[in-house]
């Protein structure tokens, strides 16, 4: 893989990671809820899911799934149900994340990791992203090094981007102000997740 080709891959991965959506909402929620550490755990768990999709695309399984509508639709529906469940949980949050913190109910590390990897694995839009834009780079992966780059570039870019988000949001001058609006953020993230779930089902 040439340097110019890898730079093209890097640019697409950056654009994909920076695109706002449920992944950003999830990292924000866990950062506000559990602090910097939980936000970073959520970020890198999410990036592992991205790495898995990269590996799946590299192996050609994504194309197989796309050609098997029943399998693809089943994955999409499971993902939509999980997104909707997380949205309902956010909407039903009593008093927002600030109340949870006051009651000693901050997010635990396992929950942050679980939500991070699930929001990536159960989001069919990520599969479509790899199918539409990523497959072209798989075609030029003619060595082990190139194949490793195809897997680890999106994984590392995604993890670093959401780690940066967690670090910025957990800054001492930013976090208290955001926590004051934690209830509103809960509700907004819940609405975003539910709308995404509806869109996933509607577009099947």
UniProtKB/TrEMBL annotation:
Q: Which residues cross the membrane?
A: 44-65, 70-88, 117-141, 148-170, 182-202
Chief location of this protein? membrane
The subcellular localization recorded is: Cell membrane
Keyword list, A-Z: Cell membrane, Membrane, Signal, Transmembrane, Transmembrane helix
| Signal sequence residues | 1-25
Name a Pfam family for this protein.
LysE
Q: Which InterPro entries match?
A: LeuE-type (IPR001123)
The identity of this protein, by name, is Lysine transporter LysE
Could you confirm whether the keyword Membrane appears in this record? Answer: yes
The organism named in the record is Shewanella morhuae
Classification via PANTHER family:
AMINO ACID EFFLUX PERMEASE RHTB FAMILY, ARGININE EXPORTER PROTEIN ARGO
Q: Does the keyword Transmembrane helix apply?
A: yes
Describe its membrane topology: Multi-pass membrane protein
